[in-house]
Amino acid sequence: MAFKPILINRENLTFCDVSFPDIDTLDKTANAIGSNMFEGFEPTPKGVEIIRDYIMGKILLADLIHIIKDKAYV
């Protein structure tokens, strides 16, 4: 499996062209997704938005589980 770099713009607070309110949320999201990339996960903008919103408390764990089960992050 080839390594794919994560497209992070720390100056503009974007990751995969998804905007973030602050550097802390950007870093937490990038770390969570980066860890999963070792297992073969390929982030999409929609997937990044979902993880960002979960980290920010906009999505509850139960909702996140449904999103994952339905593969709605693709």
Helices and strands in order:
Blueprint: E1 8-9, E2 14-15, E3 18-19, H1 23-37, H2 45-55, H3 61-69
Antiparallel strand pairs: 1-2, 2-3
Helix pairs in contact: 1-2
Please supply descriptive tags for the structure shown above.
single chain; 74 residues; mainly alpha; three-stranded antiparallel sheet; 47% helix
Compose a concise summary of this entry:
With 74 residues, this protein is mainly α. Helix content is 47%, strand content 8%. The mean pLDDT is 89.
Percentage of residues in helical conformation: 40-55%
Give the strand content.
5-15%
Domain module tally: 1
Radius of gyration: 12 Å
Would you list the SSEs in sequence order as H and E? EEEHHH
Query: Between the first and last Cα atoms, what is the distance in angstroms?
Result: 20 Å
The main sheet comes to: 3 strands, antiparallel
The secondary structure category is mainly alpha
Beta-strand segment tally: 3
What's the helix count? 3
Unreliable residue stretches: none
On the 0 to 100 scale, the average pLDDT is 89
Strand order of the largest sheet: 1-2-3
Outline type:
globular
Could you explain how this protein is built, in words?
There is one protein chain. This protein is mainly alpha-helical and 74 residues long. It has one domain (8-69). It has three helices and three strands; from the N terminus they run βββααα. The chain has helices at 23-37, 45-55, 61-69; strands at 8-9, 14-15, 18-19. The protein has a three-stranded antiparallel beta sheet with strand order 1-2-3. The mean pLDDT is 89.
